[in-house]
């Protein structure tokens, strides 16, 4: 066979393939939103669309309960209900006998509905330490959750969590700090903020109820008071002893001087009598 004959068969085969596919129109399937994160138990609206001008069929495949809200030739608007776990939904259209589809993963989050603040002790002396604890129960995902401890509007401490666990769990932050005199003029609070914008969600936050800290000036240390008391008593006893010694010494001197005077007078009388 001539080599040109082989090329002729190949050219004929490629031409047949081109003619066979020429009747199929290239098209795309699109979904909006492209990323989706919803709170557990809530519903969401999803739009399915295609670039095919006259699709033969189309729809949304999902295990969730759904309702078709509105439709036109190139798009369909659905609402899905009670999203309680991560799931995939598939949008599909058929155009000129060819089917295209696109999938969307719906992620579920549990927002920080409760933020609980605890101070202990609630009565503290200036310069002494106390503890601030903040608990955020049943929250997920932890990744992107930031817990901030506040004194008034001032940030005392903050912590951003990491982790990919999707089941709800408790996030807790504990911080030790020193009491200042001005602390009793400000309320302490805790703010939990979940940033879901990179995953198709929003910025969700919640704040605890404010709590006050009672701060007082510390009294003198008991050991110092005891030392001062003992020194004062000893000093008093020493001074008293010195005074008593002085008084008794004076009295003893006076008695001794008086005795010597009587004895001298008696001796003078005896000498006078003998003479």
From TrEMBL:
MF terms (GO), sorted A to Z: integrin binding
Gene Ontology CC: one annotated term: microvillus
Range of residues in the leader sequence: 1-23
Pfam families: ICAM_N
InterPro entries reported for this sequence: ICAM_N, ICAM_VCAM, ICAM_VCAM_N, Ig-like_dom_sf, Ig-like_fold
Compartments reported by the entry: Membrane
Transmembrane residue ranges: 225-248
Alphabetized PANTHER family for the sequence: INTERCELLULAR ADHESION MOLECULE, INTERCELLULAR ADHESION MOLECULE 2
Family: Belongs to the immunoglobulin superfamily. ICAM family.
Protein's UniProt name: Intercellular adhesion molecule 2
Source species of the chain: Balaenoptera musculus
Gene: ICAM2
């Amino acid at each position: 066979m001539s080599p040109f004959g082989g090329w002729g068969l190949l050219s004929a085969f490629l031409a047949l393939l081109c003619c066979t596919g020429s009747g199929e129109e290239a098209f795309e399937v699109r979904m909006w939103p492209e990323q989706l994160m919803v709170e557990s138990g809530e519903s969401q609206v999803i739009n399915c669309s295609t670039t095919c001008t006259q699709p033969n069929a189309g729809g949304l495949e999902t295990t969730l309960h759904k309702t078709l809200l509105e439709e036109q030739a190139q798009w369909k608007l659905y609402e899905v209900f009670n999203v309680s776990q991560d799931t995939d939904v598939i949008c599909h259209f058929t155009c000129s006998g060819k089917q295209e589809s696109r999938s969307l993963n719906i992620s579920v989050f549990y927002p920080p509905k409760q933020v609980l603040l605890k101070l202990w002790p609630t009565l503290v002396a200036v310069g002494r330490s106390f503890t601030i604890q903040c608990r955020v129960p049943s929250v997920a995902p932890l990744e992107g959750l930031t817990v901030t401890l506040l004194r008034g509007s001032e940030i005392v401490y903050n912590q951003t969590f990491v982790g990919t666990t999707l089941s709800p769990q408790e996030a807790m932050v504990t911080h030790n700090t020193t009491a200042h005199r001005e602390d009793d003029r400000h309320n302490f609070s805790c703010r939990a903020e979940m940033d879901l914008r990179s995953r198709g969600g929003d910025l969700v936050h919640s704040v605890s109820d404010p709590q006050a800290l009672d701060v007082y000036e510390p009294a003198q240390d008991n050991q110092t008071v005891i030392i001062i008391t003992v020194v004062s008593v000893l000093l008093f006893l020493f001074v008293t002893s010195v005074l008593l010694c002085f008084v008794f010494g004076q009295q003893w001197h006076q008695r001794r001087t008086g005795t010597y005077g009587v004895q001298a007078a008696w001796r003078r009388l005896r000498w006078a009598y003998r003479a």
